[in-house]
Automatic annotation (TrEMBL):
Keywords: Signal. It comes from Lysobacter brunescens. The lineage of its organism: Bacteria, Pseudomonadati, Pseudomonadota, Gammaproteobacteria, Lysobacterales. This is Lipoprotein. PROSITE patterns: PROKAR_LIPOPROTEIN. Residues 32-49 have a biased composition (Low complexity). Residues 1-23 form the signal peptide. It comes from the Bacteria. Residues 22-50 are annotated as: Disordered.
Length: 165
């Protein structure tokens, strides 16, 4: 019996010695559950500070009978444009501006106006993009229709793909 008492006493002592010593510092406070400390969730919409500075046309590629057009937003409602037309015999670059109200749902065409630097000199250009089904000459579907009006040229009509934010 003495052996059992001694063994039990030894086990209790060893367990007590192996336990971590209590800390003199207070335990850290549990994390707060207030929403103010949580980072904001990403928003799929344009933020208030970007309204009025973001064009609804981040990028656009269009094509039609004997023409193609590429538009790329460069900021502050400005866009670089490249147009090739007349069966590839004419090509020019220029700048377009979006002057509509950004952030407002577009029920009509998105209009971009600017200047194209052609071989004959600078010419006014207007590009209108309308959301609606369109099928190109190769029977491929596109979500937008495009109309390009360039001074001194026949109005161009085709299909395209508008990138979205």
């Amino acid at each position: 019996m003495r052996l059992h008492a001694f063994t039990l006493s030894l086990i209790v002592t060893l367990i007590a010695c192996s336990a971590p010593a209590p800390s003199a510092e207070p335990a850290p406070a549990p994390p707060s559950s207030t929403a103010a400390e949580a980072p904001p969730a990403p928003s799929p919409k344009v933020s208030a500070e970007m309204a009025g500075r973001v064009s609804p046309v981040p990028a656009f590629m269009g094509l039609g009978e004997h023409f193609n057009i590429r538009i790329q937003s460069v900021g502050d409602m400005r866009h670089d444009v490249e147009l090739t037309w007349a069966m590839g015999q004419k090509s020019a670059q220029g700048v377009l501006m979006y002057r509509g109200a950004p952030g407002v749902p577009h029920r009509g065409p998105i209009a971009l106006d600017g200047t194209l630097d052609t071989a004959e000199g600078a010419k006014p250009i207007r590009v209108e993009i309308v959301t609606g089904p369109c099928t190109d000459e190769a029977d491929r579907p596109h979500p937008q229709r495009v109309t390009v009006t360039l001074e001194g040229e026949t109005t161009l009509h085709g299909c395209g793909d508008l990138a979205v934010y």
